[in-house]
Amino acid sequence: MALLEVSGLSVSYGRVAALNDVSLTVREGEIVTVLGANGAGKSTLLRAILGAVPAKAGGVTFAGEDVSREPPHARIARGLCLVPEGRRILISLSVEENLLLGAHMRRDTEAVRREMDAIYGRFPNLAERRKMLASCLSGGEQQMLAIGRAMMARPRLMMLDEPSLGLSPLFVSKLFALIRELNAEGLSVLLVEQNTTKALAVAHGATVLELGRVIMAGDPKALAADPRLQEAYLGEGAAAPAPY
């Protein structure tokens, strides 16, 4: 069943077209990755899906409902969540206060506390620093905090914008293990990522953007073997990713 359907989405900033007739689908339980160079329109796509930037044309359907005219908070309430590039955590607040921000639309206090405890169980480093300012966290810990904050909103679909950016190789491996783990637990994921090899290795589907247009889409293993993608993003002779 399709959880997210993006149909003919176009976005412009003034006279500059950022997205042009972009369509993609994320089914229940899938990880779909969006690839492309800087300036391809990947972040704009995620923000448009959330409703944070207005669409010039096209529509967004989530869980069978047309949400194209809904504001971001209404889409978040439906279970659509974005972890933005650069984490965007509030470094002047504590780890726990940042997590609580993710649940600010919820009124089920006891469930919120149980889920926060579960997040601390998943991320022991955050548990140890729960009362510390988020500015004290490493880059990898801040990314885990950003994902934990998003989880507090009880998402059905989590959109991740360049989550591995600036992380050490060790934390990148931990991050992608976490994405697989969350997906195995039933979370659908729309992943924008410049680490093409790792993104294709975890994805069930892939879309490649160039200058705001879809130029390739389909099975990740087939795309990884495509000479055009290898030349542009993987390097000549790159091996196809291991199967999911």
Attribute tags:
2 domains, six-stranded mixed beta sheet, disordered C terminus, alpha/beta, Rossmann fold, four-stranded antiparallel beta sheet, 10 strands, 244 residues, 10 helices
Notes on the structure:
The chain is of the alpha/beta class and 244 residues long. It has two domains: 1-79 and 157-244, 3-Layer(aba) Sandwich (Rossmann fold); 89-154, no CATH class. The chain is 38% helix and 26% strand. It has ten helices and ten strands. The strands form two sheets. It has a six-stranded mixed sheet, sandwiched between helices. Strand 4 and strand 5 (65-66) form a beta hairpin. Helix 3 runs parallel beside helix 6 (139-151). Belongs to the ABC transporter superfamily. Keywords: Amino-acid transport, ATP-binding, Nucleotide-binding, Transport. GO terms for molecular function: ATP binding; ATP hydrolysis activity; branched-chain amino acid transmembrane transporter activity. Residues 4-236 form the ABC transporter domain.
Itemize the secondary structure elements and their pairings:
Elements lengths: L1 E12 L2 E12 L3 E5 L6 H9 L6 E6 L2 E2 L5 H7 L1 E4 L11 H8 L6 H14 L1 H5 L10 H13 L5 E5 L7 H16 L3 E5 L3 H7 L2 E6 L2 E6 L1 H5 L2 H8 L10
Parallel strand pairs: 3-8, 3-9, 6-7, 7-8
Antiparallel strand pairs: 1-2, 1-4, 4-5, 9-10
CATH level-four homologous superfamily name of the largest domain: P-loop containing nucleotide triphosphate hydrolases
CATH topology of the largest domain: Rossmann fold
Shape: globular
Strand order of the largest sheet: 6-7-8-3-9-10
Q: Total number of helical segments? A: 10
